[in-house]
Specification:
Largest sheet: 7 strands, mixed
Distance between the termini: 68 Å
Bound molecules: adenosine-5'-diphosphate
Radius of gyration: 23 Å
Helix content: 25-40%
Number of strands: 22
Strand content: 15-25%
GO biological process, one term: gamma-aminobutyric acid catabolic process
Shape: globular
Domain Aldehyde dehydrogenase: 21-478
Active site: 258
GO molecular function: succinate-semialdehyde dehydrogenase (NAD+) activity
Pfam families: Aldedh
Number of helices: 14
């Protein structure tokens, strides 16, 4: 698929440190999950390279933070324009290495680029405050300054957007960045870095270090232990988030963590069922169920349970599964075998405990899994507690509103949640009762660049996107001026 790139020079396989492409001491393979074929071998960087990148970022910091907000804004805007000008190529690289359908990949390019556009604008709004003085001889102010060298560690499910959502506000605020992309999807990240150079982001301000699994752990340790790195933003599993938090304790590092979810999707008796089915399809099966905001547990009220399950299963059965470059494919491969095994384990466990398969249920040849719906799910099943991260929808039955709220909140996670109701009182009651950072009401897709994305409980710390997303990358400083 990569032979079809309009601009083949976007296919970079070396690392970017201090504006130079670096081969690295060793290389690792990047494969196409649809075909299993090797796409490229990519520089595999280790701890010494991470130290070099951090030093380069730190050296580039004074000049970058000294630019005016408008100067940084103009450069970021150019990066946005270039990302959009190369939307098709970036989408092609993404589908090749990640598997999501080409249309979805192009959609992610637009979504990922939108953070660059948004924070290019927000760069000009990092405002301070003046405060009333407590003494006529003094004047009090608050200024907001860039925090310093920022590290980003990102996952494979959104190979571009998870990078831009961190990097754009950091750059806008005046911080340099060192990025460690997911080992399964470094090519999209490298193409975006090449476009950052073309946009005029100076050497050292944006560094990108691909690394295999073992080196990712080693590089993560260097980020955490470094006194120069002032902030780490991570998106990935709760397990790795905990490791990074523990490793960051000695340097008391500021952290933004966007971790796992276990999203409930509740359909009340008074819901518009057709709309709920559409929302459920989008929320569950986008990216083959591999997003942290994908609905993981469907709770449907008794009165509409059978109707919802029948309509939902019929639509799911009609899905075309296959290589993301094929016309009409709505569900691509899963990212790796381990992901397929987890879906199969959750489905088998549900069936063993009385669940009824109403769509799918099986692995397909290659790295594909049938889009699956299991009715009569119960609280003792694995899928009630664990995030499946795949195309499996267990549907639980409930009777009362309180029962649904209690079940929805019965998890250590608190990222996204969804519910469908046309009753205005219920909308407020349930919206306020759900212990989640985000609630979709009568809608299955909620993310966009100008809203605060993030979770509560063990789903993480901090918010990304919106004007709040800039807060991570600036420190407040109080200035007290005397002798007026
Ligand atoms: P996922 O389950 O989405 O693959 P992970 O949390 O395993 O999520 O990985 C997300 C990112 O974290 C990837 O870039 C991966 O290389 C990186 N990573 C995994 N383990 C560690 C670690 N111990 N320290 C630092 N980064 C890590």
């Amino acid at each position: 698929p990569l032979a079809l790139l309009k601009d083949p020079s976007l296919l970079k396989t070396d690392a970017l440190i201090n504006g130079q492409w670096v081969q690295g001491a060793s290389r690792f393979d990047v494969n196409d999950p649809s075909t299993g074929r090797k796409l490229a071998d990519v520089a595999n960087l280790g701890p010494a390279d991470a130290e070099a990148a951090i030093a380069a970022a730190n050296a580039a910091w004074p000049a970058w933070r000294s630019k005016t907000a408008k100067e940084r804004s103009i450069i970021l805007r150019k990066w946005f324009d270039l990302l959009m000008a190369h939307q098709e190529d970036l989408g092609r690289i993404m589908t090749a290495e990640q598997g999501k359908p080409f249309a979805e990949a192009k959609g992610e390019v637009a979504y990922g680029a939108s953070f660059v556009e948004w924070f290019a604008e927000e760069a000009k709004r990092v405002n301070g405050e003046t405060l009333p003085h407590f003494d006529n001889n003094r004047r009090l102010m608050v200024i907001r300054q860039p925090i310093g060298v920022c590290a980003a560690i990102t996952p494979w499910n959104f190979p571009l957007a998870m990078i831009t959502r961190k990097v754009a506000p950091a750059l806008a605020a005046g911080c340099p960045v060192v990025i460690k992309p997911a080992e399964l999807t470094p090519l999209t990240a490298l193409a975006a870095a090449e476009l950052a150079l073309r946009a005029g982001i100076p050497a050292g301000v944006l560094n990108l270090l691909p690394a295999d699994g073992a080196n990712s752990i080693a590089v993560g340790k260097v980020f955490c232990a470094s006194d120069t790195v002032r902030h780490i933003s991570f998106t990935g599993s709760t397990e790795v988030g905990r490791i990074l938090m523990a490793q960051s304790a000695p340097t008391v590092k500021k952290l933004a963590l966007e971790l796992g979810g276990n999203a409930p999707f509740i359909v009340f008796d008074d819901a518009d069922i057709d709309s709920a089915v559409e929302g459920a399809l989008a929320s569950k099966y986008r990216n083959a169920g591999q997003t942290c905001v994908c609905a993981n547990r469907f709770y449907v009220q008794d009165g509409v349970y059978d109707a919802f399950v029948a309509k939902f299963a019929a639509k799911v059965q009609a899905f075309k599964v296959g290589n993301g470059f094929e016309d009409g494919v709505v569900q691509g491969p899963l990212i790796e075998d381990a992901a397929i095994d987890k879906v199969q384990r959750h489905v088998d466990d549900a069936v063993a405990k009385g669940g009824k398969v109403v769509a799918g249920g099986h692995r397909l040849p290659g790295q594909f899994f049938e889009p699956t719906v299991v009715a009569e799910a119960t609280a003792d099943m694995l899928c009630a507690r664990e995030e499946t991260f795949g195309p499996f929808a267990p549907v639980f039955r409930f009777k009362t509103e309180q029962e649904a709220i209690d079940a929805a909140n019965n998890t250590e996670f608190g990222l996204a949640s969804y519910f469908y109701s046309r009753d205005v009182g219920r909308i407020f009651r349930v919206g306020e009762a759900l212990e989640y950072g985000m609630v979709g009401i009568n809608v299955g897709i909620i993310a966009t660049e100008h809203v605060p994305f993030g979770g509560v409980k063990q789903s993480g710390l901090g918010r990304e996107g919106s004007h709040h997303g800039m807060d991570e990358y600036v420190e407040m400083k109080y200035l007290c001026l005397g002798d007026i």
